[in-house]
């Protein structure tokens, strides 16, 4: 049984790293062979599962495997001193995760810089490490963006304190067709945190957030749309923001919680086992 979190070789090509075209041509037939030979295949979204079927997996041997959040980590526990992040007196947008190429976080930096011209107390905090961190730090310095800070990664056991102190949680991926069928794992984690979400991703992840009424989705790599969404969220009353968070947590509990997802997987495992034993 195979669980597919990243669709290969598509995700390799989307990474933008050198020599990926040649590598994708080699990986493609290998991956298709593995997908077709598995007794059962789970994709992490409806779109990914549909793509696997297009690539030769029988629809009777395919299902959706939604990720769940680390539900213990998705809550404040008092282990981290949030005062170190200078959130006080600010409206805080927080991104936590990889600072890599596929996240295209320069879009967030440029949007937050624009917003500060109209609402100086808006602050963007990027938390994490990755191949693009130095470039992002240079961009912040070149823009003179005093309302943007980039901080080292925080252990999962502490991140709940930070995200709970944020006003809005942010997710973003570059504009690539692959990401229309990919649900970043932070989508479920942000929903579980019960905070408003601003997501710059098209497709499945954006649909989850908007259908839940948990936040705002904007097109990826669109600085103007992102800055307008930030301005709008910063203008809302606290009660409206809280209601978004409540709806997000409700959507998580209903659709993505550990127990419901594992029950679905167990059912398919039992079905495959029974078929093998006949």
Automatic annotation (TrEMBL):
<dbReference type="Pfam" id="PF13692">
    <property type="entry name" value="Glyco_trans_1_4"/>
</dbReference>
<protein>
    <recommendedName>
        <fullName>Glycosyl transferase family 1 domain-containing protein</fullName>
    </recommendedName>
</protein>
